[in-house]
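[Automated response] Your request has been received and processed.

Submitted sequence:
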Amino acid sequence: MGFIGSVFSPWYAWSGRRAPENHVCLNVATYGPGGRFAMTDRGRGALRQSRDALTVGPSSMHWRGDRLEIEIDERGAPPLFGRLRGHIVLTPKAISGVELPLTPDGAHVWRPFAPSCSIEVALEAAGWHWSGHGYFDANFGTRALERDFTDWTWGRFPTGGGATCFYDARRRDGSRLAAGFRFDAEGKAEAVTPPPPARLPRSLWALRRETRADAGYAPRQVKAMLDAPFYCRAAVRTCIDGEETTGVHEALDLRRFRSPLLKPMLALRVPRRARWRFD
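Generated structure:
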């Protein structure tokens, strides 16, 4: 993930979020044995942008024709140090025009650019070479997430040759978001009524989680990915309109993220390199 204004960086929060271009990063996470997590907060001297490219320090993203090519050169955060280097190619099956405002005033927007993609991963480590199914989306905002939201869950599940996405959020003003979209293989989007909410077991940090599933179906986590005190990402098995599917699920608790006690802990996982410069 590329960030201009690193949303979950304690350094950005401590700065008052006045200069997003001075808090940029490329977040990379790998899972399983030997997995690494990298999220280095860099200063404005590490940022370069053009119409087709985003460069953050030694890593970059480039649109080349019909694909997004990502070059990674990062350092793993504690407790598992080590370099994360390699190349990723993401090829969308189609580009979607959907934009979903997450608040009534449009201060936060979700943009699913390519809900269904093919992906090729070649990292410089044994076993970290694979190809498969992926997606590409983005969030944009003009206010801090914790200012407007209490919590949210999001899920993206392969269905019918395309994908189905659910976005559920509780806002701090007491209102709720409950959105569903189905994307076909050509990227055409259709708003759908989500199936009923269904509880998932709490995460390792006891984070409350739920997803969407057909009535009577009990969804389950099939692979743990990332666990933090305020955030959880996992592969989840559910059933949508009679089709069983496994997709990526996220849960975010912004009440926990607001806690000042969390920021020093987070700084250990998100180091700051403000003076990084291009040669």
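Summary generated for your ticket: The chain has a mean pLDDT of 94. The longest helix spans residues 262-269.
If you did not submit this request, please reply to this message.
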